[in-house]
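Researcher: Predict the fold of Aminomethyltransferase.
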Amino acid sequence: MAATENPSLKRTPLFEQHVESGGKIVDFAGWEMPVQYAGIKEEHVAVRTGVGVFDVSHMGEIETFGPDAEAFLQRILSNDVTKLEIGGAQYSVLCREDGGVLDDLFTYRVAADRYLTVTNASNHPKDLAWFRRQAAGFDVAVVDSAEATAMLAVQGPLAREAVQALSDQPLPSKLRSGRRRIDGLDMLVAGTGYTGEDGVELIMYAEHAPIVWDSLLRRGAKPIGLAARDTLRLEVCYHLYGNDLMESRGPIEAGLGWACKEDTGYVGAEAHAATRAAGPSEKLVPFKIDGPGIARQGNPVVGGGEVTSGTLSPSLGVGIGMAYVPAASATVGTALQIDVRGKTRDATVAAKPLYQR
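Model: Structure tokens for Aminomethyltransferase follow.
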């Protein structure tokens, strides 16, 4: 079903394909996007057992190139960009001077002095402005390529088989990237994803997306909406900006210290080093509900803390989520109580990931 015509909302190049496939269209971060097609559980299971394809063309893309590209990105990204080889992919966070998280990002090094960074859809204008502001003094070009770019995520145990059948050469391995011709069309293929399953992400010219989408569906890929994307990522404890990450908190308490190399001197590094040295007062932890019930974002944790993400796990059959809790309550096995609309639900801090194949 199509959404009511709203000229203020954007559409990806695949909007008509979503409608034709029976997608339920909703407003997501200013975009008309499919929240589900056949149903959340059915789509979730399709990715866990077969292959699903997601339209993530609402994500933003920033190209950075020039003699100082590496030095510039080293200054603004939390990870060690000098370790990123040509054809590599790297996760990092973009932070304010006080350490608050502006966004979490994936950056691909496509040539010696050229990089592509993928931003979250709702944060793209803010991220682009931050990149351009911080670029002062560097011999670097910062280009917004979001409008000309489409992005598909093909995920699941059969995902590589489906894409390989359309590729002119072997696909990049996990956390690697490279140019390939998929269905005869040139694009960047990356061994990354947001589901905990194997697969690839395809970054291409916007006009090529419908061709590739249709080819993948003909090869058995199921279209997957935003709702199943959320349940899949939460089962493996991947962060969602606006829920688990935000400007008011830093990455150390969010459990992303592994992606923060403070000795590189990136923006926010001093604040993060101080938090790491002192120990964060709160930590983001995954949890499972012990009985019936589902906790949702904003539900308070009794004794201190707050749920940031929560859902019913299609794979586990129980309520799961993530919450910021006092550091003393962050140990795996710690009992929690969560106030769910006035009713207390017992929960337990669990190990990551919540779901394993």
